[in-house]
């Protein structure tokens, strides 16, 4: 998807600021869409942590990020996905290659920064920036090769050099034809105001990292200051880690979460999120099955979960002795004469789900 829609929304006079949550895979992007977001940000920090189990310290490669972007965009074709491009992964030629990969993946936009590679998260200590001319060359290459993509120029000079240098770099980046400017990690509201006052007539980006270096403001508050594109890159990741820590601690302590089901998404809720019913319907369509006999509704897909049926550890029609009880087959999977049941050609396991 091109960045035209995002560019149009950001240019609307009086429209609210655009808020992008950070995501890291196809499922979290879909959750973003389910929550009502039109645009999401594929965060390098999030992908590095979830894909590699490593900090945002320059470990994540160009092709790894491109593959994640491809999966996210393919699974969410109606969603605008802005993809973190770090430093472009090299010089202007490498940046062109990055642009091509992002376009092939279906990205609507990209962020391109001026850190020395290997880079690190904008709210970490020890950042360094490259020469102005080298960063500007990469921006020009990106703009030239991706006219339909929404391109944000990000400078990390605030922490590496100072606020004045960051503003000067942003002014120079504006002249390359980028769509938006992003001065990373201002450390006060006064600094946010200074950035906005110094960079009129272009979309400004604010990065809201919970417990990070920049004051945490709402999109409305940032909009009043002059910022139009707001990214909340780590909210979902931080909340996910907290939730998983809590549920695994309960599982370790109690051996089951049967007394805490309110803390979990239900089986059929996740089935709806990934459109399980639609996939059953597609399978039936091409196998020529009777869709009425096995309705594609989630309820029929899961079967009557509160009635247990016996299961056997055998292939084909069951002839062996009855095994311990397990969850039933999906509705419509049982066949045979009245009063008799024969099992489908699948192996039903007695192991817990």
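-> sequence recovered:
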């Amino acid at each position: 998807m091109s960045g035209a829609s995002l560019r149009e929304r950001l240019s609307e006079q009086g429209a609210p600021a655009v808020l992008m949550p950070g995501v890291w895979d196809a499922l979290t992007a879909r959750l973003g869409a389910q929550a009502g977001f039109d645009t999401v940000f594929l965060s390098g920090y999030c992908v590095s942590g979830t894909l590699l189990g490593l900090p945002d310290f320059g470990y994540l490669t160009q092709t790894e990020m491109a593959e994640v972007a491809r999966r996210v965009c393919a699974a969410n074709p109606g969603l605008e996905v802005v993809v973190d491009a770090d430093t472009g992964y090299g010089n202007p030629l490498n940046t062109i290659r990055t642009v091509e990969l992002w376009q092939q993946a279906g990205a609507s936009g990209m962020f391109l920064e001026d850190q020395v590679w290997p880079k690190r998260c904008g709210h970490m200590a020890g950042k360094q920036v490259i020469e102005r001319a080298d960063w500007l060359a990469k921006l020009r290459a990106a703009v030239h090769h991706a006219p339909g993509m929404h391109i944000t120029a990000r400078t990390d000079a605030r922490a590496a050099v100072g606020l004045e240098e960051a503003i000067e770099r942003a002014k120079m980046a504006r002249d390359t034809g980028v769509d938006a400017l992003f001065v990373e990690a201002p450390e006060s509201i006064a600094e946010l105001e200074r950035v906005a006052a110094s960079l009129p007539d272009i979309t400004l980006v604010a990065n809201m990292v919970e417990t990070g270096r920049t004051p945490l403001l709402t999109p409305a508050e940032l909009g009043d200051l002059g910022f139009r594109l707001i990214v909340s890159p780590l909210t979902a990741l931080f909340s996910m880690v907290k939730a998983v820590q809590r549920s695994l601690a309960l599982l370790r302590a109690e051996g089951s979460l049967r007394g805490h089901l309110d803390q979990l998404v239900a089986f059929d809720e996740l089935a709806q999120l990934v459109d399980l019913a639609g996939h059953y319907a597609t399978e039936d369509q091409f196998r020529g099955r009777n869709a009425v006999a096995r309705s594609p509704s989630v309820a029929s897909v899961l079967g009557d979960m509160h009635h247990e049926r016996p299961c056997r550890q055998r292939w084909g029609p069951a002839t062996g002795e009855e095994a311990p009880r397990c969850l039933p087959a999906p509705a419509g999977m049982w066949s045979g004469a009245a009063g008799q049941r024969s099992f489908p050609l699948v192996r039903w396991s007695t192991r817990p789900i």
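Residues 26 and 259 are 30 Å apart (CA to CA).
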